Amino acid sequence: MSSSTPQTVASAVDPLDATRLREDFPILSEEVNGHRLVYLDSAATSQRPLAVLDAEREFLTHANAAVHRGAHTLAAEATDLFEDARATVAGFVGAEAEQLVWTSGATMGLNLVAYSIGNASVGRGAPASAGLALRPGDEIVTTAIEHHANLLPWQELAARTGAVLRHIPARDDGTLDLDAASEIIGERTRIVAFTHVSNVLGIVNPVDELIALARRVGALTVMDACQSAPHLPLDLPALGVDLAVFSGHKMLGPYGVGGLYGRAEVLEAMPPFLTGGSMITTVTLDHAEYLAPPQRFEAGTQPIGPAIGLAAAVRYLDGVGLDRIHAHETMLAERMRAGLVEIPGIRLLGDAEGAERVGLWSFDVDGVHAHDAGQFLDARGVAVRVGHHCAAPLHSRFGITASVRASTALYNTADDVDVFLDAVSGIRPYFGV
């Protein structure tokens, strides 16, 4: 079997062989500070299999050219690869190719949406764009658990339009307060933006209920799928969300590429955000007409090689099977929790009983700053994330400024978790707490 091809999936419930899959990820054979690397930072950036590295290199060495522009053979080959990648990545989330806009990542995708709505609010765009316009007193609703990328664009949009920004609160266990949500999402609500899976808590949010509340009042729904796309089977059209974003580097893919999914009628109504070459039909010195989506939102040179690499990444994930990946990571999360709750001085964030979750835990170490805890773990070869994870308001909600986050992926093993737990148990004794 090729080292760049995941083993054949016998059924959706068969356990995956993470030890075998690790052979596909060259970096996992590295040592750190004299220890075997235990990589538990995939929520920030996942590692790439050989299939992804090979796909980008193959493009660069055999078909490197600008897309949608040239008439020569390399340009045609590059364009075919680029658009095939779009269809592959769109299919991964249940969408059609024309429903997927290439972005540099989820942050750009969310800014694209917010600025496009801002443009509609000042009268730019087609007649249908007027339906997206915000006026003073309209409300944008997000949640108290969002990554800054799904908070700051809405703050800016509210400031530009006079809209009011409101937030669905989190309960003490990290779950969203849906009773409050039903009161907050009302007649003035025009946008409801939320994360599918919290990058701090690992909890899978009740998006069906949030979407239903938004639909009740005709509000647009925008979902951050960064922490769900690599870990859960995802069908965005079936889920019913209007717009959703994800990032390639969190799902075994390259940096600098991501996707914005949109329902066709929503994308059609959205005015462009970035303007320039490649997204126009006609241009005069005083006026321009723009292409239909998705090209309307793809000004300038696109991330061609990274898009091709991302297509290879989603083929890899599909080959292993998202059901199997989710089951495997759920097992790792349960093993991690069972060990962490036995260690004195460890406080888990989002330890909600019965909540569906991905393989991610954030925690506070009593008496030890998160950065010191992270350095202690790194000295033992364990890579975790420390800080507020671009979710400062959520950390404030729990009365802390930073936490340690351990996040798993399909290539992590039970042994990785055990090495991590052994290292965590040594943090407070080392610092004399």
UniProtKB/TrEMBL annotation:
* Entry EC no(s): 2.8.1.7
Q: Which residues fall in a coiled-coil region? A: none
Which cofactor is recorded for it? pyridoxal 5'-phosphate
Biological process terms in GO annotation: cysteine metabolic process
**InterPro entries cross-referenced by the UniProt entry:** Aminotrans_V_dom, Aminotrans_V_PyrdxlP_BS, Cys_dSase_SufS, PyrdxlP-dep_Trfase, PyrdxlP-dep_Trfase_major, PyrdxlP-dep_Trfase_small
Per UniProt, which keywords does this protein have? Pyridoxal phosphate, Transferase
This entry's Gene Ontology molecular function terms read: cysteine desulfurase activity; pyridoxal phosphate binding
Q: Which domain of life is it from?
A: Bacteria
Q: Which Gene3D superfamilies match?
A: Aspartate Aminotransferase, domain 1, Type I PLP-dependent aspartate aminotransferase-like (Major domain)
Q: Cite the Aminotransferase class V domain residue spans from the record.
A: 38-420
Note the Pfam families from the entry: Aminotran_5
Q: Which reaction does it catalyse?
A: (sulfur carrier)-H + L-cysteine = (sulfur carrier)-SH + L-alanine
Its biological purpose: Catalyzes the removal of elemental sulfur and selenium atoms from L-cysteine, L-cystine, L-selenocysteine, and L-selenocystine to produce L-alanine.
Family membership, please give it. Belongs to the class-V pyridoxal-phosphate-dependent aminotransferase family. Csd subfamily.
Protein's name in the database: Cysteine desulfurase
